[in-house]
Specification:
The protein has 25 helices and 14 strands. It is of the alpha/beta class. It is globular. The protein binds flavin mononucleotide and iron/sulfur cluster. Iron/sulfur cluster (SF4) binds next to helix 21 and helix 23.
């Protein structure tokens, strides 16, 4: 029987972080959010209707028109652009574009309702095959991916059979201080982008006053070119839960949330099943899965917190930081999926083992989502410090016949471009920062010599303009102004003045933006101007 409005409201109103699941419940039932539904939700959760309208319209995927949920959404991320998403958009009736959907190693990604499809122009849409992660080509020892290809690992039985939850048991026999010391000695740092030392974050939560304390798994994975967290959650969900529970023990948190991006509907099912199965093992530590609704900025941790709390998902001003004033103003550790999935192996095998996986003085591993113009795109868990050329050529098979390397983006889009002169780079923060970039969440997109790199930069900046939350003007206006200049719609026509203006806007953005989006976005144009001056001049000469 179809649930009534009242049934839906009663189901969710007393649950933690109820707004998103309640909106999804109406959206799933009615295939859009009607005015009546919003009025009912506003009354139930006591959120002013005007605020609720503002919040709902912020997300890309909540439709306000009947049947809107069923309309196909076609990924127009940088790699799907190479694979013909624009043609596919024209072919599919009623289709709209969505930013990178985290499937860059497959044909063009399409979401229709809760179905995950892939397509190529001129062909029929197909169910996306849940690809098993590729075998480890480099032979280097893995941490997070060590069991990700083991069949059955996603079930509790399969997980227990392969040593799962033993690290949690061991952690619970240790004091929180001992757990923090192991994580500290391992050198584990955040894998979501900012690289903050994990043990320091957890210690700050442990020492913060107030409660209840919270662990949040950031599974928003909105950075174009990143699709590693999806693979970890799809194939090894209990590893993420075990990491969260160990984090709970170390910090004194008894509740956790997984904030999952909208674009991974099948992953929600896998995670919810894993949470259900693991209830007994997790004990006092309670985990809820909450699905976002499409907004890149919701991966920024304070925006994520506002989204979970049912507020407009603007990033918060800091300080105070989430470690003292996070979810509902309580001490909170927000950690990336990969960070959390690294924790149980570290506890099981020891800090020295993990630290020793890195090359030279670098500690640990990083999953790189590699896509674009290489023979074997996919996720690769690399020792930190691995030469970029080893990954591109030896592990991923290099370029297609007759093509040569032109550029890679780093940190998805946020780290800007590296060019041919940077092929001596190693995959670690000190080296990449010296080259004006950073490793971040580990998305590496490859562009060969046939690609128009100025056009890639234009698309990147228009992604940032689209996803800028608009809270602060340097980013809101700057991303638009740079996009207009890259597309030739506005700005000086004389090359020197054009470049000066791009630099000037980028400088203001990186110096004055309120969060990482506006600070990082100009790296795209700065690296374009620095590493591809001839391509830029040729582009300007054509205008
Ligand atoms: C615009 C923006 C988007 C972000 N998106 C993500 C994301 O999708 N997933 C993620 O884990 N971190 C993301 N981050 C980083 C988070 O703010 C935060 O640093 C991270 O979740 C902390 O976890 P970690 O220490 O384990 O990396 C983003 C940051 C910014 C500025
Ligand atoms: S930098 Fe951009 S995304 Fe971040 S708060 Fe400002 S407007 Fe929003």
């Amino acid at each position: 029987m179809t649930p009534t409005d009242q049934d839906l409201c009663n189901r969710w109103k007393d649950e933690p972080a109820p707004l998103l699941p309640l909106l999804h419940a109406f959206h799933d039932r009615d295939e859009h959010l009607s005015d009546e539904a919003l009025r009912g939700i506003s009354d139930t959760l006591r959120i002013p209707l005007a605020d609720l309208h503002g919040t709902v319209s912020f997300y890309h995927h909540f439709s306000r028109t009947p049947g809107g949920k069923r309309a196909p959404r076609v990924c127009d991320g940088p790699i799907c652009k190479l694979n013909g998403c624009d043609e596919l958009l024209d072919e599919l009736e009623g289709a709209t574009a969505m930013p990178c959907a985290g499937r860059c190693d497959e044909p063009v990604a399409v979401i229709q309702g809760d179905r995950y499809l892939v397509g190529t122009p001129g062909g029929a849409l197909q169910e996306s095959p849940t690809l098993q992660p590729a075998p480890n080509p480099g032979g280097a020892e893995e941490c997070c991916f060590a069991h990700v290809r083991t069949s059955g690992r996603a079930t509790l039985t399969g997980y227990l059979e392969t040593g799962g939850y033993a690290a949690l048991e061991r952690a619970r026999e240790m004091t929180h201080e001992e757990v923090l010391d192991v994580v500290d000695a391992s050198g584990l740092a955040g894998r979501g982008g900012a690289g903050f030392p994990t043990a320091r974050k957890w210690r700050a939560v442990r020492e913060a006053e107030g409660g209840p304390k919270t662990i949040i798994c950031n599974a928003d994975e909105g950075e174009p070119g990143c699709f590693k967290d999806r693979v970890l959650m799809d194939h090894d969900p209990h590893a993420v839960l075990e990491g969260m529970a160990i984090a709970g023990h170390a910090t004194g948190a008894e509740r956790g949330f997984i904030y999952l991006r909208y674009e991974y509907p099948h992953t929600q099912v896998i995670l919810e099943q894993a949470v259900e199965e693991a209830r007994e093992v997790l004990g006092e530590f309670k985990v809820c899965v909450r699905r976002g609704a499409g907004a890149y900025i919701c991966g920024e941790e304070t925006s994520l917190l506002n989204s979970l709390e049912g507020k407009h998902p603007f990033p918060r001003n800091r300080p105070p930081y989430p470690v003292t004033h996070g979810f509902e103003d309580t001490p909170t550790a927000v950690n990336n999926v990969e960070t959390l999935a690294s924790v149980a192996p570290i506890l099981a095998k020891g800090a020295e083992w993990y630290a020793g996986l890195g090359h030279g003085e670098h500690k640990g591993t990083k999953i790189i989502s590699l896509s674009g113009d290489v023979m074997r795109p996919g996720n690769y868990e690399v020792p930190i410090g691995l030469p970029l050329t080893t990954l591109l050529n030896d592990w991923a098979g290099g370029q297609r016949e007759g093509r040569s390397f032109q550029a890679v983006t780093m940190a998805g889009l946020s780290g800007g471009f590296l060019g041919a002169e940077d092929l001596d780079a190693t995959l670690d923060e000190p080296c990449l920062r010296a080259k004006g970039s950073f490793l971040g969440a580990g998305g590496v997109m490859v562009f060969d010599d046939t690609r128009d790199i100025v056009e890639v930069a234009r698309q990147a900046m228009s992604f940032f303009a689209h996803e800028s939350c608009g809270k602060c003007f340097p980013c809101r206006i700057g991303t638009e102004r740079i996009s207009e200049r890259l597309s030739g719609e506005a700005g000086p026509v004389e090359a020197g003045a054009w470049k000066d203006e791009i630099h000037a806007i980028g400088h203001v953005m990186s110096e004055t933006s309120a969060c990482g989006l506006g600070i990082a976005a100009p790296l795209i144009t700065e690296s374009l101007l620095e590493k591809f001056p001839e391509e830029v001049d040729a582009h300007l000469a054509k205008r």
